[in-house]
Amino acid sequence: MTVADRPELMDDHDVERDRIVTEAVLTVTGVRRTFEADLAPVRALRGADLTVTRGEFVAIMGPSGCGKSTLLSLVAGLDTADEGEIVVNGDVITGRDADWLAEMRRAEIGMVFQFFNLLEGMTALENVTLPALLAGRRRRAAETRARDLLDLLGLGDKASVMPATLSGGYRQRLAIARALANEPTLLLADEPTGALDSDGGREVLELFRRLHHDGQTIVMVTHSSEVAAAADRLVRMRDGRVVDDGSGR
Amino acid sequence: MNRPPAPVRQRRTTADDATSEGRRRALDAPGVAAVQLVARSEARRSVVSLLATTMLVAVVAAAALTSAAGARRTSTVLDRYLAATATPDLEVMAYWPELVADADAMSSLADELAALDGVIDAVPSQAFVTFGVPGQSYLRVVRTGPDARYLDVDRSPLVSGRDVDPSSGAEVVVSEQTAASLGLEVGDTLAVPTPSTGTWAAVQLGAGDLAFDGPTFELEVVGIARVATDLRTAGQSPISYATASPALSGRLGDGSPTAGIFYLRLHDDFDIADAVAVVVAAEMELGGTGWVTTETAVEELGPVRRGFDTLAVALALFAGFALLAGTFSLVQVLSRQLGSSRTVVRSARELGMSRRSTTAAIALPALGTVAVGTLVGVAVAIALSPRFPVFAARRAEPSPSVQIDPLVHVGGAVALAVGLGLLVLWSARRQVAKVVDGHSARGTGGVQSRNGSARRSTRWTAWLSPPAEIGWSSVLDGARRRRAVTPSSAIAGVGIALAGVLALAVFTASHRAAADDPERSGFAWDVNVVILEDLAPTLAALAADDRVAATAELTCWYSQLTGVPAGETPVCALVARSGSMAPVITRGRAPGGPAEAALAARTARSLGVNVGDSVVLEEGGRSREFRVVGLHLSPVAHAGPGNGVLVTLDGLAGYLGATVAPDGSLDIGSDRRLLITFAEGVDPDTTRDELAAELGAFLADPLHDHRPPELIALIGAIRPILVALGTFLAGLGTLGLIHYLTLSVSRGGREAAVLASLGFTRAQLRAVVTWQAAAVVVVAVAIGVPLGLLAGRWTWLMTVDDVGMIDTPATPWVAIGIIIGITMVAALAIATTFGWVAARRPLAAALRSE
Questions:
Q1: Rounded distance, CA B468 to CA B462, Å?
Q2: Distance CA B828, CA B493 (A)
Q3: How far apart are CA B265 and CA B641, in angstroms?
Q4: Which of A106, B141, B443, B637 is the most exposed place for a label (fewest CB within 10 A)?
């Protein structure tokens, strides 16, 4: 489901954009982002450009502070760019208000974080059900979808378990299941193996490859070349810019 | 064989060892700098909630210390007033013209009284005894006398104007009550009608009625003073006072219509009978005629003292409640504050900080809030000290300025700070122990069942919208509550505050019902007047009057009953004269024969009897057995509804050994009253005035209108303190909720960010916080409402248990609904503010943190 499928989220601007038919599900053009700091402003992004087409598995790599996580946050609509344009599945998301971005996230984005960010007071099933409920599904349908996802990710027997009792690898699988709850256009992963041991990391990357094989578009941020190797395209960033968009790979 | 000595095992100390030893010592040492560093970071991290805690400590300290100091100041104010004004302990009044006419005799009698054991000083004076203007029936006394020393006794503080000029015979200072009742201001003229010498002498001998057929003195009001009886909190003094200069006594001449008054200041062990004996002896010696009466400050100021004591007790209770409720709130808030330091404790321990240092590090910010809050509270309490005593007692304060009460402002503050400090240290130590000993759910908070498998979380909220489900479950779901900032303290805080407010609402509503409904205190009629004359014509007129529904005659004898400690008990008979009128019976029935009686509640309790028992009423030489057929409310207002015995007229005559005359009176002197019930639909006040005009002035006597029992009147006087207590409790509950939401929102930033990443809009994030606050209030209402209703009813019943009136507690449902509604609206308003903050936090950073 895209924003274009939901007329209530569309304005004239969207209608015009709707006409644009492209295979690119993410286009980042000249995006800049500066954070105010005590000593001097931190220019996290200094004109980043990136295009991701449907079905790609892209790894964004670069040293700490190069702006890769900031870029991911901007794409997810968790932060706003100072300059530039970001288009997600045909919709310009820059310049939108927080509520529009929230609804866009429900429809288009699934996120996986380094530290899982699971809702600890909810069971595994409830964690996966929640995004679907938010997107307007009926509870029964949302739970069915959540159970299917848990089965798919090998968590079928952990539905009623609280996240705190799971190992790191299982917790990240659960986070991925939650990210997939609304069949997102883009699965964004920020250092998804960063808090896992090597076995757990391998499991997660294997899972990503399976999802990619099934057609899921994935954008993964990592500083590890080993992890990045799992992707089929490697984008390199340095000093707030994309220095190699990996299109030649 | 020489064996080589056994090798001595030695360990050589190396430079490396010394270094590591030093390092270990450094780690084990308290590490003041490290403690300071961690404490400072904790303070920075929780600056908002620490400020809220400081404010709460300050509010609690200010409330408790202010009211405790106020209670102490109120409890001593009357004695300080009496000392400052040199109010005499005893007044001996000699109604005896020959004595007053002889200044030397007055002086010599004063000397004789002063020479008695136990007397510190005796000062002679004279007083006009007069009635006021028409419509004002109470007695008025004007002090004067040739000996000016009386001006130094009872030096009542001036409210306005000045003291009298001793050389002027035409000036007077009047009491506040006199000024108020006569509408006098400084500069006005007070007319003092006096009886003629002959009339006065006849009155002294009991041979004539009082009439004001003598000269009328025109006196200029030069000042208004606050005399001791002006301090009454309940009811008006039957006597009002004025003070004239000694020069006035010179205008009176021989046989002046005055009484002699001797003001005595006494030691505690003085026997009043000695003073009376001296005056009577002097009377005999001078061959005079008249009578002697006495009045002690203890008697005269009894209602004032009881009123002030009630105020002091109310303030002390306020202080106690404030301290209890405040400490409870602070315990919760401080625990919550320290409970949020789990991560810091873990990190500090992992870095090698000792238990003691870790405890100190997390306790220091909270200790700072206690110290600063207490200091602020003390400052506020001292600044507010001039506002105490409050209400009527304030009028007695001789020095209404800032006062530092060392016991309360210093001792109380230190005790409070030390107590809270110990609480903080204990709580911090417990928190550290929980983390170090592994009791804390490390990092997660999952709930494990005994066999190790995880349980399902509560699902009853499943039908709610996602924000509502998350908000509710963060309060009500055990698993989430362990993870989030614990809401139980906020629930308890709001619940107890609500319970307190509702208890006060029930108490004040019950009081209002008791004060406003005369029947609850035995007044089942509209007028109760003493009968001074032949009643037959009046009764006949009233029986034919459409405005009157019923009349009855109440005949009472005041008896010192054996076994009843509370002074005189009215033993009364009520006989209906026209229409239907009955006493208020609370149990059983009214007496129907000469051997039956109904008792008032306190009297029955004192005699240890109940309905169905027999009781022997004994007084002096007389005694008579009655069967108790019911409990009633005594119809004699000044005795109180709980004191009395109701019998038939024949029963009363039998008890007294008297006979009943054809007109219904007994042949021995008794108290006879006429009771009148007005017809439906007439206005009681108008009808009372009309009847007063038609039947005689006695009906207008304000003393015979309904007066609630003294305790009910006193509670009315302290109602503002109850309102203040309710406000304080509401404030505590509000602060508790604010503190909970502050911590919850500041610590729950990551969860809010996660929800936002899943697609929660800002409105939905706000709704989560709003539902969270709503859940706290709903649970608090569920706990607080029944608790408050029970507490209010119980407190009311305990308070008025000894009054003996109908004490059924009221349940003000409308007020309760409004209070609950206001609580919910206030909580939602507060939550909206916090929700706004929660919805506008930066998301990306929160999601990247562990």
A1: 10
A2: 16
A3: 36
A4: B443
B259: part of which helix (H) or strand (E)?
A: strand B258-266
Q: Give, as one character, the DSSP assignment of residue B267.
A: -
A152 touches chain B (CB under 8 A): no
Residues A107 and A5: their CA atoms lie apart, in Å, by: 10
ipTM > 0.85 for the complex: no
Mean pLDDT across the stretch A217-221? 95
Q: Which class is domain A56-77+97-244?
A: alpha beta
- Could you tell me the two tokens for B165? 């000029």
Q: In this complex, is the C-beta atom of A126 within 8 Å of any C-beta atom belonging to chain B?
A: yes
CB atoms under 10 Å from CB of B286, counted, come to 14
From the list A70, A106, A119, which residue is nearest B751 (CB)?
A119
Whole-angstrom distance, CA of residue B247 vs CA of residue B699 = 39
Compute the distance between CA of residue B338 and CA of residue B334 in angstroms, rounded to an integer.
6
Q: Of B634, B633, B651, whose CA–CA distance to B593 is shortest?
A: B651
For residues B637 and B800, the answer to whether their CB atoms sit within 8 Å is no
Given an 8 Å threshold on Cβ–Cβ distance, is A163 in contact with B446?
yes
Query: A22: pLDDT confidence band, cut at 50, 70 and 90?
Result: very low
Q: Are B757 and A114 within 8 A, CB to CB?
A: no
Asked if B203 and B237 count as a contact pair (C-beta separation under 8 A), the reply is: no
What are the chain B neighbours of A113 within 8 Å (beta carbons)?
757, 847-848
Residue A214, token pair as written in the block: 């099934």
Angstrom distances, CA of residue B113 to CA of B123, B148, B267: 9, 18, 13
- Please work out, in degrees rounded to the nearest 5, the angle formed at the alpha carbon of residue B835 by the alpha carbons of B831 and B838: 140
Residue stretches of chain B with pLDDT short of 70: 1-31, 129-140, 203-211, 233-240, 253-257, 288-290, 350-352, 438-463, 477-485, 530-534, 566-567, 620, 669, 695-707, 849-850
Where would I find the beta strands (DSSP E) of B53-197? 90-95, 119-131, 139-144, 158-161, 171-175, 189-193
B641 neighbors B600 (Cβ within 8 angstroms): yes
Find the helix packing angle between B302-339 and B47-85, rounded to 10°: 170
Cβ B744 vs Cβ B772: under 8 Å: yes
Interface of B with A in 346-375 (CB under 8 A): none
Contacts of B12 (CB under 8 A, 6+ apart): none
Q: Does A221 touch chain B (CB under 8 A)?
A: no
Summarised one tens digit per residue, pLDDT across range A120-139 is: 778 899 889 888 888 888 88
C-alpha B17/C-alpha A55 separation (Å) is 62
Whole-number pLDDT of residue B70:
94
Fill in the amino acid letter for B290.
G
Domain locations along chain B: 45-86+307-442, 97-289, 461-520+706-850, 524-703
Pairs across A and B, CB distance < 8 A: 120
Q: What is the pLDDT of chain A when averaged over all its residues?
A: 86
CA distance B40 to B45: 9
Chain B residues within 8 A of A79 when measuring between CB atoms = 842-844
**Residue A114 forms contact with B (CB below 8 Å):** yes
- pLDDT at res. B658: 85
- A108 in contact with B, Cβ within 8 Å: no
Any B CB within 8 A of A2 CB: no
pLDDT of residue B251: 78
**Digit-coded pLDDT (tens) for B26-79:** 444 446 777 888 888 888 878 888 898 899 899 999 999 999 999 999 999 999
**Backbone phi and psi for residue B277, each to the nearest 5 degrees, phi listed first:** -60, -40
Q: What is the predicted pLDDT for the residue at A28?
A: 95
pLDDT at A1: 42
Q: Residue A5 has which token pair? A: 């499928």
Interface contact A76-B753, CB threshold 8 A: no
* Helix runs in A19-83, H state only: 68-76
